[in-house]
Amino acid sequence: MDEENIAKLLEGELNRFIKVWTTALLCISCCYFAGKLFPRGWSRFAAVIPSVVLFLLFPLQLNTLHLGGMTAFFLSWLANLKLLLFAFDQGPLAAAAQISFPRFFAVACFPIKLSNRNPSNEKHSPGGGTRTWLLYSIKGILLVLVVKLYDYRIHFNPTAMNILYTLHMYLALDIILAMTAAIVKALLGIELEPQFDEPYLSNSLQDFWGRRWNIMASRVLKPAVYIPIQSWFSRIIDREIAILPAVMATFLVSGLIHELIFYYLSRMRPTWEVTWFFVLHGACLVVEIVSKKVVKRRFRLPAPVSAMVTIGFMMSTAFWLFFPPFLRINPAERAVAEITAAGDFLKGVFEKVKSVKG
Fold first, then answer.
1. How far, in Å, are 84, 251, 258 from residue 279 at the CA level?
2. What letter would DSSP give residue 209?
3. 121-163, pLDDT tens digit by residue?
4. Which pLDDT does position 303 carry in this prediction?
5. Nearest to residue 39, comparing CAs of 88, 72, 75, 92?
6. Which of 209, 177, 187 is nearest to 282 (CA)?
7. What is the DSSP letter of 243?
8. Helix (H, G, I), strand (E, B) or coil at 192
9. Strand-pair partners of 114
10. How far apart are CA 61 and CA 17, in angstroms?
11. Which phi and psi (to 5°) does residue 308 adopt?
12. pTM for the whole thing?
């Protein structure tokens, strides 16, 4: 395909992307005013459900890995869960009556949470100051290197490629979410909490999934799935035991959401490997919780050893169940093609602007 056709395809994708997000803005505004018109409960739920359905359909309008994946993550996953919680005055949007529409839109659509920390203490916080900018500069350089290494992928074995994909996924997500936070902070003047807390330092599955990886997703799934399931099971079994089916249900829902996102990206029939990846981790987390309660503090692995075991388990299970369906999307080829097309498109736009001015 020549450069002219690629530019036309990208331009069409950008037009669809703008239309999708313009419609999403209108949907969120309807939900915002529904919160003022309807009390919490089923009447507000009926008012927000059309937006939830549309947000499930929007990613089908996009074909690129980056724009389609980002839209699926922000709208079909996070925004939908937050809006369903909002219908019953739960979750990050529960205080909608006290915030402006721009903040409502930002909190609804993006993986952010309004922070109560004092900006004057930002240099002392884990996510602020010179250390953060230096860290993200290093991550940006590493991301560029990872993408560049795709040019030599024919020389890498499958394990090495899986490691590259793991680094690419983590670095890209972390940088995109940090950029989102920076933009929202600049536009709305609010402090935002970080979405990752160095997951490669995790020393247990609880530590990884609950405190370090995609923190906002965990905080949305907790009131949406974990707490209702725990509350229901607490009626028939001990509350301490009720957390176990709640954990399994949360990981099952997370797996199904990931399966949906993979479908958006591939448009291929689901193989359910991604769902089984999360079900497996849910089961292993249940075993970890029970084991900790049984042994209490009588036995504990040294921190370096537990960290190596945790990351080793994460990587091995991801290579087994998570990455095979991901590789069927041809992420390396599509990512390189989209980045190259975007560069050519921007170059063409710049040349047109330059010629008009000249």
1. 23, 6, 12
2. I
3. 444 444 445 566 787 788 888 888 887 887 787 888 877 887 8
4. 80
5. 88
6. 209
7. H
8. strand
9. 192
10. 8
11. -65, -40
12. 0.82
